[in-house]
Amino acid sequence: MDTHRLKYFLRIAEEGSISRAATVLGIAQPALSRQIRLLEEDLGITLFERTRRGVHLTEEGERLRSSTAAPLRQLELAVRYAGSPLARIERGLLFGMVPTAARVLAAPLLASLGAAFPNVHFHVAVAETDDLMQRMLKGAVDLAVVNPVSDDRLFYRNLVVEDLVLVGGPASDLSPASPVRFTDLAALSLVMPSAQTGIRNTLENTALRMKVAITARFSTDSLDVCKQLVEAGLGYAVLPPAACGAEVEAGRLRSAPICEPEINHQLGVGTTAALELPREFATKIGVVLREEVARLTKSGLWPARFASSPVWDPNIPEPQ
Questions:
Q1: Which residues face 144 on adjacent strands?
Q2: Helices (H) and strands (E) in the chain, counts
Q3: Beta strand 305-306 with 154-163: parallel, antiparallel or unpaired?
Q4: Which of 43, 66, 82 is the C-terminal boundary of a domain?
Q5: Which tens digits make up the pLDDT trace of 216-232?
Q6: Fewer Cβ atoms within 10 A, N terminus or C terminus of the chain?
């Protein structure tokens, strides 16, 4: 099968429009439509439903996208770097991620990095920002996806902004159609992260501005334990949708937006001035990371807004 047709299919799925996809790809719309018809004939299925506003994936189309997007991305990266000296680098890379990001980002990112750098061995540490920051300062983590930090020993650049939602057990009355006011959180039994950065910091700062008192009935540094406590009906948690989407879809948890005010938090990539990686290698890692995050957010696999700032260079200090 012609992999170009699969790439065309994925682009149309991302854009939701054959005409927009044709513009991005730089080919004529009739030619693109013909390639998709040929792909549908080869597979014996219908991939898109045509509407007045564009196209939508059919059930079969959604299955094809979920099974081909990552392998094609890995193939593209392997080909891109095949002739580069970077592909011959043999070393280890110590990568860190906060738990809420690791759930959606770890597997696709490591697949992409593994395709681009086949001789690099990856170690992933999953911990909260405070812990990862200390590990970076000690040289036990090279770079990490963390919440914003104010330590001038670290470089940081934003990647995404995630809206936070209130999450309750299956017996709760939470609904996506019924936002919960932030001040109402004061009356709830809350399960909160132990770490003072990230979500807990966002909640406490917002509560201070709103002049309400919120307290943690339970604190834990484990995302899984947090969700288990919520599922058991012992409390409520504030989480990004990516951290609880599977459980909400399965009916094990329920969620609702938070309003008055809406709250969100940022995640970005951080490292130290003492990063011991070749500059070109470190920069390419940043490129692959941003491309993967952009793909995940655009496709909806990561319910977040991509921060389209310039390419991250760990050798150029970021303002804190």
A1: 96, 270
A2: 10, 14
A3: antiparallel
A4: 82
A5: 999 998 999 999 999 99
A6: N
